[in-house]
Design goal:
The complex is a heterodimer of chains A (203) and B (343).
Chain A (H helix, E strand, L loop, with lengths): L3 H33 L6 H29 L7 H22 L1 H24 L12 H21 L5 H23 L1 H14 L2
Chain B lengths: L6 H31 L6 H32 L6 H16 L25 H20 L3 H20 L9 H7 L9 H19 L7 H24 L3 H33 L7 H19 L6 H27 L8
Helix pairs in contact in B: 1-2, 1-5, 2-4, 4-5, 4-8, 8-9, 8-11, 9-10, 10-11
The chains are: A mainly alpha (203), B mainly alpha (343).
Chain lengths: 203, 343
């Protein structure tokens, strides 16, 4: 039977590969920007350039969002269920994208991820033993859940780019979630000792 | 500039300080090189003391820079005669009515003052290298490995050399800012010319020099650059030897660096919307920063599997790649045009 950690390992490798491709596109864009002197082009042409780059990067962002969608439930489900979940998610995304467009397909993946990740966070906060994590520390689990929730929210928030007030509100929620997540995850041992000290200092 | 503070004193004392740092840095560099290649430690105590002195002097120099900026804040304001102020406020109100982010109206009782952050122009290198020195000092005391210490010292020596010869913040203090502001002190300037100059200086003051994001976004990135440099050194050592203590030290700096990089980038986002509007996607600097973040993020994820031999080396190569991406991102500002450009 396939082990959970190896599933996790291959997911990380796949994410690495997608991030690598996105990095290459970023480098291409930088040199293109320089060669074509995009900053001096009229607004219409500049917007055409932005649109073209968005089209180039879109499949890889889609892949990244899909990977994110598959990655989130790994904390909740056994491997055999994960494979089925990944297949169902991919199929649902494909169908939604074909009928209502890629944007809505992505929104579906993100919404499912958001709901699941909120569930993972709730369970991590409750100290559930049913979650699958590489690390056992309570604060690492809570921190990792918060960080990933922040990442999902950040991508989700990009859909509300035109509605500035909502966009910025969600952005600050993202930032707080990510920052708290990093503090809990990276400094879990300090968190534990801080809480112990606080408990000891109580009369 | 008749009423402005005397930058010559600031420059003179700052230059002496930096020269001292250069000389001590040179000695530390020699000791670092010797230790890097010798099988046994050489002059451990002297190099430790040198590192403490250099770090302290860098902090003193930074306080000196802060004092200079405080002088600018207290002594330099954009004062206007009353009639001109009333006319300008009408112009500002008209400009604000169509803008997403309004500029405050001119207040005669409190004319606008510059609150310039202490990490612009050449001062950013100073801050970056000072952060490296402080973190390097903590790494020095955590790791009793003479070759590792030698590498940390050598990098600091290189940084002090760059600072003195190429990016000296004391040689000509804030040259771009001074060039921008100097016409303001021309007493023969007509009212209309002064109003025109005010409208040129004021938006930059509000959205750049006095922007509160400027106090958060750049220093976090420079602190993260300092952490990445130390992670780079540990990654190089990881390639040579499987030493868990060095890997742990590198991970500690990577965590702090990633935290600062992510928060710094996030805090730059609402500022970019405010200062540039929505059309700044695919700006070269943003692209390279996202690329660096992606590499760094990958490094932290692969590190979870560093117990596998192949992943140990992959992780250390990513640590080195992250440093290369950081240098590329930093140099991109000079080579690629765009919103962050220094061209």
């Amino acid at each position: 039977m396939q082990r959970k950690s190896s599933y996790d390992f291959y997911l990380i490798l796949a994410t690495t590969a997608v991030l690598f491709v996105i990095s290459i596109i970023c480098i291409y864009s930088m040199f293109y920007f320089k060669m074509a002197q995009v900053q001096q082009l009229p607004t219409v042409m500049k917007e055409a350039y932005l649109h073209r780059m968005n089209v180039i990067v879109a499949p890889f962002i889609t892949a990244l969002i899909l990977l994110l969608g598959i990655c989130v439930p790994k904390r909740l489900l056994p491997v055999s269920w994960l494979n089925r979940f990944a297949l169902v998610l991919a199929a649902l995304t494909l169908i939604t994208s074909m009928i209502w467009g890629v944007k809505l397909g992505m929104l579906l993946v993100l919404s499912i991820s958001l709901i699941l990740q909120t569930g993972v966070l709730g369970m991590a906060l409750g100290g559930s033993k049913n979650l699958y994590f590489e690390r056992k520390n309570y604060w690492v689990r809570v921190g990792s859940s918060l960080m990933h929730l922040g990442l999902i929210l950040f991508v989700f928030d990009l859909f509300f780019f035109d509605r500035q007030a909502l966009h910025l509100l969600l952005f600050w929620v993202t930032t707080i979630s990510t920052v708290l997540g990093m503090i809990f995850c990276f400094y879990a041992e300090s968190m534990v000792s801080l809480i112990k000290r606080l408990q000891l200092s109580r009369p | 500039m008749p009423t402005f503070l005397d930058p010559t004193t600031f420059s003179l004392l700052g230059n002496y300080l930096l020269l001292t740092i250069l000389v001590l840095g040179g000695l530390l560099g020699i000791s670092g090189t010797v230790n890097l290649f010798r099988p046994a430690p050489v002059g451990e105590k002297i190099s430790s003391r040198l590192l403490i002195v250099i770090t302290s002097l860098l902090v003193v120099g930074f306080i000196w820079i802060c004092w200079f900026h405080y002088q600018i804040h207290t002594q330099l304001s954009l004062e206007l005669p009353q009639n001109l102020a009333v006319w300008l406020n009408r112009q500002l109100a008209a400009a604000n009515s169509n803008a997403s982010y309004a500029m405050p109206l001119y207040d005669l009782a409190h004319p606008p003052r510059y609150s310039i952050p202490v990490w612009i122009e050449n001062e950013k290198y100073y801050f970056w290298f000072m952060c490296y020195a402080i973190l390097g000092l903590s790494a020095h005391y955590r790791m009793r490995h003479h070759r590792f210490r030698g590498a940390v010292h050598l990098i600091l020596a290189i940084q002090t050399t760059i600072l003195y010869f190429f990016t000296n913040p004391f040689a000509a203090p804030l040259p771009k800012f001074m060039a921008e502001i100097s016409p303001w002190f021309n007493e023969n300037l007509s009212d209309m010319a002064r109003a025109g100059l005010f409208m040129k200086l004021y938006p930059k003051m509000i959205f750049y020099y006095n922007a509160h994001y400027m106090w958060l976004h750049p220093p976090m990135l420079f602190l993260s650059y300092a952490c990445i440099t130390l992670t780079f050194i540990t990654s190089l050592f990881m390639l040579v030897k499987r030493d868990l203590a060095i890997e742990n030290l590198g991970y500690d700096f990577a965590k702090l660096g990633f935290f600062m990089l992510t928060l710094g980038m996030l805090l730059g986002y609402p500022w970019a919307l405010q200062a540039w509007g929505p059309n700044w996607w695919w700006d070269p600097k943003i692209c390279s920063s996202i690329m660096m973040w992606a590499v760094f993020s990958t490094y932290l994820h692969t590190r979870l599997y560093a117990n596998k031999p192949a992943m140990w080396y992959f992780s250390s190569i990513l640590g080195i790649l992250c440093f290369a991406a950081m240098i590329f991102t930093f140099l991109a500002t000079f080579f690629f045009p765009g919103e962050h450009t220094f061209q």
